[in-house]
Amino acid sequence: MKQFTLTQHSFLLLLGLVTVAFFWILLPFSGAVFWGVVLAIVFGPLHERLLAAFGERPNAAALATLILIVLMVILPVTLIAAALVDQALGLYAMVSTGQLDFDGLLRRTVGGLPGWLASLLERYESTIMDTLRDKLTAGVAQASQLAARYAVNVGRNALNFLVSMAVMLYLLFFLFRDGRTITARIKRAVPLSSHYKKPLFDKFVTVIRATVKGNVLVAMAQGALGGLIFWFLDVPAPVLWAVVMSFLSLLPAIGAALIWGPVAAYFLFSGAVWQGAVLALYGVLVIGLVDNLLRPFLVGKDTKLPDYLVLLSTIGGMALFGLNGFVIGPVIAALFIAAWSLFAGAEEFHGE
User: Fold this and answer.
1) Domain ranges of the chain
2) Contact in structure between 196 and 341 (CB atoms under 8 Å)
3) Residue 116: strand, helix, or coil
């Protein structure tokens, strides 16, 4: 086995220290850097086509790709965020002024329950029902206050947001322009043989593209369909609930149903039977069908991960890393599977 000299040990120590220091410096802009890299990977094929169309002029192709990303992604997200803030503030105002009486809503819901269930609940109304009522009222009020406070903080931190956005777009331009060179240098620097590097890098890129494109498309579709039916049924703040359903739909199988399910139940038990039936059928047959058809085709097909692993890695990733976790979780899971598959078939580890 090769023995490292003192000079080599010192250099490796220096390499580790400057690497940690470098990532520490980037920490304030970690979100901008992360999404810059993700967008560069996702829109890489588009940039390659534009590069060929521009006759291998990297600056023009990178700028054109950047403009398309702003028009297709950033501008629509900004407009939706503005509508979300407006409706969140409106919902908070309705809660704080008593226009939305959750105690009354709960009583009407209980009044619509089957007789045997209503009588059973009445026995424990002083305990279970009062507790449920208080928790529901306090929870919704806190959620509305949180949304309003977040909206105010976004306004106050608009400068930080704009700086992060500028950093992301600036980095994205150079990732497009110099992406091939950067990728080649990273591959050379990773201390693995090409037998391992190629499948791991390929899996990394494939999973990021499949996860982002698949989950975002599913989230957009489910959020838009959910917001549409909420608007049709005259549910308050449909844009707000559409965005919430979009975020929750990042959780496979169970996401959007956490919103439309309780609303459908409220309609049914409060006497609005046709609204509840329409929302329940629409949720199962339309919103649920989008998840059942699109997600396996867009995400599972390319990542080659079973549905349960996609679900667990997504939930775990979001629990640890927030919104970024819906990308990080499946990537880690896919690399875990790929690395162990390589290890299981590697002759140098098994002496075959």
Assistant:
1) 30-189, 192-346
2) no
3) helix
pLDDT digits (tens, 9 = 90+) for 143-197: 555 555 555 555 556 667 788 888 889 999 999 988 888 888 888 877 777 777 7
Instruction: Give the separation between CA 261 and CA 279, rounded to whole angstroms.
Output: 8
Contacts of 13 (CB under 8 A, 6+ apart): none
**Global confidence as pTM:** 0.70
Q: Give the separation between CA 108 and CA 254, rounded to whole angstroms.
A: 27
The string of pLDDT tens digits covering residues 182-239 is 888 888 877 777 777 788 888 888 888 877 877 777 788 888 888 888 888 888 778 7
Query: What HEC string does 83-112 produce?
Result: HHHHHHHHHHHHHHHCCCCHHHHHHHHHHC
Phi first, then psi: give them for residue 229, nearest 5 degrees.
Answer: -70, -35
How many residues in total does the chain contain?
A: 352
- Cβ within 8 Å of residue 203, ≥6 positions away: 334, 335, 338
Residue pair 96/156 in contact (Cβ under 8 Å)? The answer is: no
Left if phi > 0, otherwise alpha if psi is -120 to 50, otherwise beta: which for 57? Answer: beta
The owner of tokens 């305990």 is 127
What CA–CA distance (Å, rounded) separates 184 from 167? 23
Of 302, 280, 300, nearest in space to 291 by CA: 300
Handedness of CA 135, 140, 143, 149 (dihedral sign): negative
Q: What residues contact residue 117 under an 8 Å CB cut-off, 6+ apart?
A: none
Q: Please tell me what DSSP assigns to residue 4.
A: P
Write the single-letter amino acid at 94. Answer: M
Per DSSP, helices labelled H in the chain are 6-26, 30-42, 44-53, 58-69, 75-97, 102-111, 115-123, 130-156, 158-177, 179-189, 194-232, 238-248, 257-269, 273-282, 288-295, 301-303, 307-321, 325-344, 347-350
